[in-house]
Amino acid sequence: MKLDYRLLLISLFFIFSDQISAQVIIHAENFNGGIGSWNAVDQSDATDQWTATAGYMEMNGFGGGNDLDWLISPSINMDAQGNEYFMFDYNDNFAGNLIELWYSANYNGGGTSADVTSGTWIQIQLDVVDFNATSCISNNIFQRHPALDISAITGASVYFAFRYTGLSSSAKTYRIDDIHIEGDYYAGITIGIDCAPLKSELHNLTSAQPDRIRYSSSLYDVWDAILHTDRRRNDANTATIVWDMFTDIPAGTGEFEYDHCSNRDQGSCPGGEGNCYNREHTVPRSWWGGGTALADTQNTDMHHIYPSDRSLNTSKSNYPPGIVTTATTTGSNGVMLGTNGAQPCGINYFEPIDEYKGDYARTYFYFVTRYEHNMVAWAPINARGDCFLDPSTYPSIDPWGLSLMLQWHAADPVSQKEIDRNNAVYAIQGNRNPYIDNPNYVNYVWGNEFGLPCNYILLPISLISFNAEQDKEEVLLSWATSSEQSSDVFAIERSGDDINWHQIGAVEAAGNSASRINYQYSDRYPLIDGGYYRLKQIDLNGEFAYSGVQYIKTNLTKDLHIYPNPFENNITVDGNIDVTTINIYSIQGQDYTGSVSIHRIAENQLKINTEELTSGTYVLQVGAERILVVRK
Questions:
Q1: pLDDT at residue number 56
Q2: What DSSP element (H or E) covers 429?
Q3: Alpha-carbon dihedral of residues 608, 613, 615, 616, nearest 10 degrees?
Q4: Nearest to 185 by CA among 422, 385, 374
């Protein structure tokens, strides 16, 4: 019986959610110069593999029989940054299977069919549109798949691969273009700033928008974008429909089901709710002058354009958001248009249902941030817009409206729908809504719904350093924070293999602080030949985050040896110190200490009999005079 007892090291990388690192273009390939750094592998007949054609990669899918074709990226280092997204453009023709995306952390990059087969590949879920089954898509126009959050994938050498399975009975022609992997979008945002300076930095970030789409065009336009930004399965899970916040009934059934193609408003839609959908500018055109030139990005900015029932959108007109006490129009899901004498404008207001109030609030916050440089000029253009917008770069929303939007934001937290939509828009126009990614930005820019101003709201804990060093026979850990909010405790965790972690101590946190605080903890019983350390910072509400990992190779005077590794039937432990404890665990943590027998064969030498253990991987833990040795 042989036990696999070899040491395995895996580096894990954690960051606190409020820390912002450098934005990185990790990889980009548009195939204008051919296949570039990618690689095509055909696992069948090598007659129809991916080929570079006219500035994109094409695969026709037909191989005579069942066929498997791979388009594989170069090695990507996923450990050098964080918050990575994968994006690509695509189109297809004919009927057949849909494209797939996979990744591998152990593919050897060899480029042969055997190499591909030997790798472990994990599928990444896609949401591709089937061109052949979607009547309003031209197969000559590349669609933009929503950005895929791949931040959970780790490894210094990760390969991504498009895979297509062609069948003898049916197969598509697929085209892939403009692949790019980006990370750390909020790179340039200064940690610790708030109020108007933070809003301006977010403005600069969201204004760096590389692509502007068209409103109506034979090229890629807003109608095409909605195919990706606002789609969901119907309640019966039989069709993909438009996600319309004017008619959707989140907690029930019976809503209207709009097809993305056949139910577009093409100018001949009959009156009444439920007949067609159009494109709603959440911030109406009349508020900013109605510019429709390509340079007027607000006209096609998908962060504030939603598909909406045509009839209800007409009733909404250019009224501001508000609380309606007397409804003149009520939609089938409860959305209302009407009046409220307690609000200042003396006009109608638009009130979405509670499930979507936060969506709309964060949309208005995005708009006045992205276009803050236009607020002074835009606010007086239209009386209804002037009622809600403030003619200033900050705060940009009138006090009554700002107070209401803060309430809506707090009462309706960010949903998965918003996250998915934010990713889709990011792939289309290159910028994100920061108030969806980081909802606390709302409080840091404007304050909160309780009236606490922005400059009285502390950022979450900001860890600015974390170090480990040997101090005689101990390991001294030190760290510092620049600010803390509602922080409760730092739990110190240690590992011998960077996989199995155990808490070895705790240090009380400051709670709330706006200045630097230094902390220390001494590990009096370190692992004999080095260990990994991390902090688990826990808030008063129980939420927690991990620091990065620190490794230290200790040089202790005590000497202990464990061999052989791997071994069969017996393990020997010897050294110049007395062993006090021996424990053996499965890789899943189950204690098998009772299944082994331990015999002393010399003054400082022990033999562990492991014949009763089944073949597998185990973790051995040996304690001796203030040290602990862990082996895998």
A1: 96
A2: helix 416-429
A3: -80
A4: 422
Percent of the chain with pLDDT over 90: 58
- C-beta separation of 180 from 87 below 8 A: yes
CA 508/CA 502 separation, integer angstroms:
18
Give the residue from 191, 185, 181 showing the smallest Cα distance to 434.
Answer: 185
Amino acid found at 217? S
Domain 462-552 is of which CATH architecture? Sandwich (2.60)
Per-residue pLDDT band for 68 (boundaries 50, 70, 90) equals confident
Among the listed residues 71, 70, 74, 83, the one whose alpha carbon sits nearest the alpha carbon of residue 27: 74
Q: 495's torsion region: left (phi>0), alpha (psi -120 to 50) or beta? A: beta
The domains of the chain are located at 24-183, 195-455, 462-552, 560-631
Torsional sign, CA 522, 526, 531, 535:
negative
**C-beta atoms surrounding 529 within 10 Å:** 15
Write down the pLDDT at residue 10.
23
Residue 208: name the closest of 479, 503, 463, 434 by CA.
Answer: 434
**Per DSSP, which regions of 259-377 are E strands?**
277-281, 305-309, 326-330, 336-339, 349-351
The total of other beta-carbon atoms located within 10 Å of residue 538's CB is: 17
Give the whole-angstrom CA distance, residue 245 versus residue 228. 16
CB 342 within 8 A of CB 325: yes
- Predicted confidence (pLDDT) per residue in 350-406, tens digit: 999 999 999 999 999 999 999 999 999 998 899 999 999 999 999 999 999 999 999
The alpha helices in 255-353, defined as continuous H runs, are: 310-316
User: Taking the domain 24-183, which CATH number applies?
Assistant: 2.60.120.200
Is it the case that residue 21 has pLDDT exceeding 60? no
425's CB contacts (< 8 A; 6+ apart) are 225, 229, 302, 303, 431, 432, 433
- Edge to edge, the sheet with strand 618-624 lists 581-586, 618-624, 627-631
Q: How many CB atoms lie within 10 A of CB 109?
A: 14
41 vs 82: CA distance, rounded Å: 29
* Total-model pTM: 0.74
